[in-house]
Design brief:
The structure is a homodimer. By secondary structure, the first copy, chain A, is α/β, with parallel strands linked by helices. The first copy, chain A, has 4 domains: 4-19 and 174-321, 3-Layer(aba) Sandwich (Molybdenum Cofactor Biosythetic Enzyme, Chain A); 20-37 and 145-172, Molybdopterin biosynthesis moea protein, domain 2 (Alpha-Beta Complex); 48-134, Beta Complex (Molybdopterin biosynthesis moeA protein, domain 3); 331-410, MoeA, C-terminal, domain IV (Beta-clip, Beta Barrel), CATH 2.40.340.10. Chain A has helices spanning 4-13, 58-61, 155-163, 203-214, 228-236, 258-266, 303-321, and strands at residues 20-24, 37-38, 48-49, 53-56, 70-78, 91-95, 107-110, 114-117, 120-123, 133-134, 145-147, 168-172, 176-182, 186-187, 199-200, 217-224, 243-247, 269-273, 277-278, 284-288, 294-299, 326-328, 331-336, 340-341, 348-358, 361-366, 383-387, 393-394, 399-404, 412-413. In chain A, the strands form 8 sheets. Chain A has a 6-stranded mixed beta sheet. In chain A, a hairpin with a 2-residue loop joins strand 25 (348-358) and strand 26 (361-366). The first copy, chain A, starts with a helix and ends with a strand. Chains A and B meet through helix 3, strand 15, helix 4, helix 7 and strand 22 of A and helix 3, strand 15, helix 4, helix 7 and strand 22 of B. Strand 22 of chain A pairs antiparallel with strand 30 (412-413) of chain B.
């Protein structure tokens, strides 16, 4: 039985990134960039106007005042996306935001300082030479590094990719994560109940959803009965996956075939079995594949334990495989309302808590029957409060560390 | 020109949820539940064992000690998913976690307190009657309300839906959000540059990605030139959308056709134009459709302004349409490193900041050229610091409110 921290360390030391692939921008959100992105052009590509107004030669507006305005013939127009026009001495061009600075012009006078009459513009004030011009390359130059490889693609990054004419981009692949639910008693949704002892699965699809959240590709391998034949057949379906998750079949019962069969069928080398944590003690981890590049997690069948193991152990591995650097859920300190007591302090315990953000910082409220194995106790939970080894009592209002798996409690309410 | 708070209020007062639809569980993550979910069976469905061990009659183990153990014939086996077996006086059954409690048995003795020899089990200790039995309906009863309509579906909720045999479920529809990019100068990705004044779009796909993040369905209506014909044609493509977003074409230039044409083509009733904020002043908002149930946002073409407007105004509307109650990005207080100064304090200003979570709370660092209209300044940003109306200076280390649009800065680093 190893410590939680050691288990996580072993997992991540044995986790490698998967390969690269090219994706279109509509599928790039949240993926991790695998190439450096450079500017294809200067930005702006040419001198242009930052205002609506008139493009003029500074010489022509020098000394202009309310009483003695500069009066210039309007001979052209420059709008965004338009042609390059010319301005000669004594003349001006209409110009709009984004319009090219006309040949000969060196200054843009904003509309508000002017008046137009009979195709002439009256300018009532001298402004600085070069005013309101956004210079070519002022934001960045062709060849500048704009986004470094390894960054996660968010809306801003995707906008930049588009602006440098990259409709497709190299990103890390997403690991395929096979989910095998084991146990004679487990029914898939839709299957008829034939025996009183049968239980409908919850883990299959809660884990499916956790894989989606973590950015992996869930593959439901199915349900295996507690027979060597069925276990062997279903495990063989996992061969194309990067990660195999099994639920059930890793505790001490005689019908626990999985741990032995993953070794026989897939060549899994088990690196640890059992972790000093509660819930989730009977978790197994191993590596397999030609270069031991694939991972195996034997996850307990208890639905709450399965959630804990996934969030703390499987999710960081999926994130590392897909190229992410921030692989762990946030850990914050929160005041624990009502406190918490337990008899033994041998294991690190994760207690379900609802979180709130207050003026005084985070507040955690234990939720649901903590000993319970039922998922309904997770409905209001946002995180797992950590009751450390050796601790048997936390007083009301005392601070504990909380691992957040759902950050939505921070969002603002419609009616607030 | 109205205040930011008033603008948000007007938007949400005019936003209604869209209809309902049934989705399969693999498409349900993040959707908002539109029906109450009840238990279809008792859970557990029958008395069953919480341990591996032996099912016995309490009468038979009463008074058992190390020296004087109870000795019972093993006559049956009860495993998870198995048949209901029987125990008679003087006998016991093997039982595994999840196995049905045999007829006649009332207590489960955990394996650790027993020894097996010659098909007999030796029990060395009396334990309480009823020990290790998980009673029928102990977690919840058939007909109990398990998840209320209106909750957002996370992995735990999806596991529960599966466990009550709901492969499909009613959720709120996602609004279709049309994106029309306007301006003669704007090129789509892949289009050849023919004039120096042409600019490649960034807004189209950054907004596309923001719509995805907000849980809407992005529809790229395309790019319209600054002519009445093209503007009219492209706007007509938006008729099937719940929300129309245009970028560009809402400032004061002569070529700003959009605001007039949305009224002509789609019957948009403009409810406000221009908000006392920076960036994002020239934003327009309106309603359209038979029951004014559809929304229109005219978003400025400046990419940073577009991001600000989307996060603060469009995202809450999308979220409300899809049934969410927490519609706003989180607002936290953070210490502003380096402080911030500006000349005028007339408008609420949003400054891009990178965020960090420290022992002392959140810390914000202004990022990129703040005046700039370029998206590259967003690459390291996680939030918008709010410089309130009337404030012209924030001192180094002073607290400001920050609207978070990217919570990933809270996650834990691989190498930490």
């Amino acid at each position: 039985m190893i410590k939680f921290e050691d288990a996580v360390k072993i997992i991540l030391e044995n986790t490698k990134t998967v390969g690269l692939e090219k994706v279109f921008l509509d599928n790039a959100l949240g993926r991790v960039l695998a190439e450096d992105i450079y500017a294809d052009r200067d930005n702006p590509p040419a001198d242009n106007s930052g205002m609506d107004g008139f493009a003029v030669r500074y010489e022509d507006i020098r000394g202009a005042t309310e009483e003695n305005p500069a009066v210039l013939d309007i001979i052209a127009e420059s709008k965004a996306g338009g042609e390059l026009v010319k301005v000669k001495p004594g003349t001006a061009a209409y110009i709009y935001t984004g319009g090219l600075i006309p040949e000969g012009a060196d200054t843009v006078v904003q509309k508000e300082l002017t008046k137009v009459e009979d195709n002439k513009v009256f300018i009532f004030q001298e402004i600085k030479k070069g005013s309101n011009i956004r210079p070519k390359g002022g934001d960045y130059k062709r060849g500048d590094l704009l986004i470094e490889s390894g960054r996660k693609l968010r809306p801003a990054e995707i906008g930049i990719l588009s602006s440098v004419n990259k409709p497709t981009v190299y990103v890390y692949q997403q690991p395929r994560v096979g989910i095998l639910t084991t146990g004679d008693e487990i029914l898939d949704v839709g299957e008829p109940v034939e025996k009183l002892s049968q239980i409908r699965t919850s883990n299959t699809y809660s884990i499916f959803s956790q894989v989606l959240e973590a950015g992996g590709i869930p593959v439901v391998i199915g349900f295996s009965k507690d027979t060597p034949e069925d276990t062997e057949r279903k495990l063989s379906y996992a061969k194309s996956c990067d990660i195999l998750l099994t639920t059930g079949g890793v505790s001490v019962g005689e019908y626990d075939l999985v741990k032995d069969f993953v070794t026989k069928v897939l060549g899994v080398e088990i690196l640890f079995w059992k972790v000093k944590q509660k819930p989730g003690k009977p978790v197994a981890f191993g590596v397999w594949g030609a270069e031991k590049e694939k991972l195996f997690f034997g996850i307990p069948g208890n639905p709450v334990a399965a959630m804990v193991v996934f969030e703390n152990m499987v999710k960081p591995a999926i994130r590392k495989m897909r190229g992410e650097k921030k692989v762990f859920n946030p850990v914050i300190k929160a005041k624990l309302l009502g406190g918490y007591r337990r008899k033994k302090g041998e294991r690190l315990e994760f207690i379900r808590v609802a979180l709130e953000m207050t003026e005084d910082g985070f507040v955690a409220r234990p939720f649901g029957k903590q000993g319970s194995n039922i998922l309904t106790g997770m409905v209001f939970a946002h995180g797992f409060g950590m009751v450390e080894v050796g601790v048997t009592e936390i007083k009301d209002g005392e601070e504990i560390k909380v691992i957040i798996f759902d950050k939505s409690f921070m969002d603002g309410d419609l009616n607030a």
